[in-house]
Design a protein that fits this description.
Ser/Thr-sp_prot-phosphatase, alpha/beta, single chain, binds manganese (II) ion, 16% strand, 12 helices
Length: 455
């Protein structure tokens, strides 16, 4: 039999109900997916608007919550940065649903590889056992692992707007802030699961001069008066980004990768040249892209994970400058607030598994990038059934770069990085923060997972 057309829609319906599909359908699905993925480069090109997601880890019901908050495929264009499987109890249903959506709507969903999309790691952290339990054999696990080998290593998002179109939704309760109005350039907005504004940050029109003085003290960072004339229309090169804070100009591209950078990779073209169609190696560039983490260090450091490297702000700023990037988006590390910007917003961690391992108590986030120009891609979504949210993780503060350091702004700076000032305008960023799906939406086994959240 072949899976296609209405079969595929039936499989999607079944998986959305968290019911596995038969083994022969998995085989067909994986074959089709491989045919598609083999055509993709190591670095997939993606046009904004796009919604960027981090680790899922088999938390199927929370993936459903993610789609409720972020919109469904194909209405929303999604980019998932890997670690679909392991840890949670529904790796199979989560990965197969994403794979079905990929085959059904190939241009509306991008899947890149995480360090858990590997034979060795899934044998230890749950996916292998889950397949064995649900099918009685390792065949399905084997089919999925063959797909893992073909997943892209990264994605390059272009055409993102520097400013967000303001959300005219309500302001969240308990948000003790001055929300700047929609007339100014909005750089960051944080919304809760009901689409209520928790925080809004207007891009500082003085940031050009502030960034200039900062750049002088840091030779590795790019000058805001860009010396690279090839960056047509990029922020800071003059023509389109005036001190008046003109909105809607082009921004640098955004590199999305599961882990981070590699000392063996100084350009995106070098990622393109890798031979990716294999099990994740224990070392080397491909391994590093899936395993590395940013850290508050200078240069490169050894990773406590035993694979990949730690890399500091100087590495990120240098890489972004050289490759005309305004931002690196990555996943791979649990962040209690769901997202965390570092190094003057040159890199962000996005984490999309709320209450990780059903016990970490964290919230999750997804990152929406708008389309340069009209931002027509943003569709207001009606959010309904669930009230609440907010509460303990409201990030409200009216403290911008020069604001008062209230406790709230300190909390905020832990998410947005110590300085809001940038050497180069990044894309406008809308974070939707959400909690774990309500208990009554899941039939959850009460088993405590092992307690190393490292991998
Ligand atoms: Mn990971």
């Amino acid at each position: 039999m072949s899976i296609g057309g209405s079969d595929l829609d039936r499989a999607i319906t079944q998986l959305r109900a968290c019911r596995p599909i038969p083994e022969n359908q998995v085989r067909e699905l994986c074959y089709k997916a491989r045919e598609l993925l083999i055509e993709e480069g190591n670095v997939v090109g993606v046009d904004a608007p796009v919604t960027i997601c981090g680790d899922i880890h088999g938390q199927f019901h929370d993936l459903m919550e993610l789609f409720r908050v972020g919109g469904d495929v194909p209405d929303t264009n999604y980019l998932f940065m890997g670690d679909f499987v392991d840890r949670g109890f529904y790796s199979l249903e989560s990965f197969l649903l994403l794979l079905c959506l990929k085959v059904r709507y190939p241009d509306r969903i991008t899947l890149i590889r995480g360090n858990h999309e590997s034979r060795q790691i899934t044998t230890v952290y749950g996916f292998y056992d889950e397949c064995l339990r649900k099918y009685g054999s390792a065949n399905v696990w084997r089919y999925c692992c063959e797909v893992f080998d073909y997943l892209a290593l990264g994605a390059l998002v272009t055409g993102a707007a520097t400013s967000l179109e303001p959300t005219d939704g309500p302001i969240a309760e308990n948000t003790n802030i001055d929300i700047p109005d929609g007339d100014c350039d909005i750089e960051i907005e944080t919304l809760n699961a009901n689409g209520e504004i928790m925080y809004r940050y207007a891009r500082n029109s003085d940031s050009q001069s502030s960034a200039a003085s900062q750049a002088n003290s840091n030779p590795a960072s790019s000058s805001p008066i860009g010396p690279t004339p090839s960056r047509v229309g990029a922020a800071g090169t003059g023509a389109t980004s005036s001190a008046n804070g003109s909105s809607r100009n082009d921004t640098g591209a955004i590199l999305c990768v599961h882990g981070g950078l590699s000392p063996l990779i100084d350009s995106i073209d070098k990622i393109r040249l890798l031979d990716r169609k294999q099990e994740v190696p224990h070392e080397g560039a491909m391994c590093d892209l899936l395993w590395s983490d940013p850290d508050e260090i200078d240069g490169w450091g050894l990773s406590p994970r035993g694979a990949g490297f730690l890399f500091g702000a100087d590495i990120v700023k240098c890489f972004n400058h050289k490759n005309d990037l305004s931002l690196i988006a990555r996943a791979h590390q649990l962040v209690m607030e769901g997202f965390k910007e570092m190094f003057e917003s040159t890199i962000v961690t996005v984490w999309s598994a709320p209450n990780y391992c059903y016990r970490c108590g964290n919230v999750a986030a997804i990152l929406e990038l708008g389309e340069d120009g009209s931002n027509a891609g943003f569709v207001r979504r009606s959010n309904g059934e669930r009230g609440g949210g907010g509460g303990g993780w409201v990030l409200g503060s009216n403290a911008g770069p020069n604001g008062n350091a209230t406790s709230e702004s300190r909390r905020l700076s832990s998410v947005l990085g110590d300085s809001m000032q940038r050497t180069r305008d990044g894309p406008g960023r809308r974070y939707r923060v959400f909690e774990a799906a309500p208990q009554d939406s899941r039939g959850m086994p009460a088993k405590k997972p092992v307690a190393d959240y490292f991998l």
